[in-house]
Amino acid sequence: MLSKVLLQAVKIALGCCLSIWIAETMQLEYAASAGSITFLSVITTRWESLRLMGARLAGFVVTAFLAWLIFRSVPSRWAAFGLFIFLLALATNALGWKPTLAVNVVIGTHFLAKTDFSAGFVLNELLLVVVGTTVGFGVNFFQNNALVQRQIRREIASVDRRMQKILGHIARELKGEKEFVRTPVSENVWEETVQLERHLQKCLVQSYEYRDNHFASHPEYYSYYFEMRIRQCAILSGLQGEIRRIRQFPVQAGVVAEFVVCVGEHVLERNEPAEQLERLNTLLEEMKQTPLPRSREEFENRAILYHILMDLEEFLKLKKKFVDLLTAEQLERYWGKTKEKNVKVSE
């Protein structure tokens, strides 16, 4: 984290200095503003800065027009600037250019101060935008993506271990272990699931940033992975709620618990859950062959178990969908496999 902050600070400082130097070399008025524009560009990702380049150039036209229209017509400077900001904010929001507002305001202050709308001064302002935005875009190419990727890989390994731990605790609870069921330990598992879900949200944001600092499409793999895990985590939370509704664990609970253990063993990133889904179908067929419940309570408890199996099926299908949507490049790069040879791997 410290290295990321340090790199960002260096990029901002060098980029702003370079922009001002270029603007001064070109003998532009308000050269320091080129540095401000670069700052507003560097704090975004590569894709965002690229998208903003066109929007800022188009936004400049709107800014210059509004400044010309208002500053020449309204005698009061403060009233003119207030009206300018009001209309500019409306226009940028309507056109989807809200991120360009800060740069447009900077340019607007120059027009307000000079009240000069000659071709020379308009060109001066346009060049400030071009210099500041271009330097910001160039500086954004210096990203420590390798470090970020290593951090994401560590997070994935950590998430897999935590999910295995949670599934292990769920299996123990289904087995009805006295030292575990409805004790502070089980409460800790519930809290662990909530904390994991929050952590996954942070990982997802990091994966989006990593993706947006690439022009290739394969880094979307990490975003898809964390999105899938977030949905699976929600299912785990629901499972724990279902288990707490069971008053007396029927015999079938032990079989379901063993299946949960199997799911936990195969929950790792680079594994495709076809075998677990097949085993689940077999388990469901076997449960249909068991004798009917003898009491209402047993019926309700077995119904909850069946619902738990349905949730586990959805849990596995989320992983299967994640695998099925991977491109050939993503399979090769992140799993070391080809699309044609997408052989089932024992998790």
Automatic annotation (TrEMBL):
InterPro entries: ArAE_1, ArAE_1_C, ArAE_1_C_sf, UPF0421. It holds the Pfam family ArAE_1. Residues 150-320 form the Putative aromatic acid exporter C-terminal domain. Its main location: membrane. GO terms for cellular component: plasma membrane. Keywords: Cell membrane, Membrane, Transmembrane, Transmembrane helix. It is found in: Cell membrane. The chain crosses the membrane at residues 6-23, 30-47, 53-71, 78-97, 117-142. The keyword Endoplasmic reticulum does not apply. This is Putative aromatic acid exporter C-terminal domain-containing protein. It comes from Candidatus Fusicatenibacter merdavium.
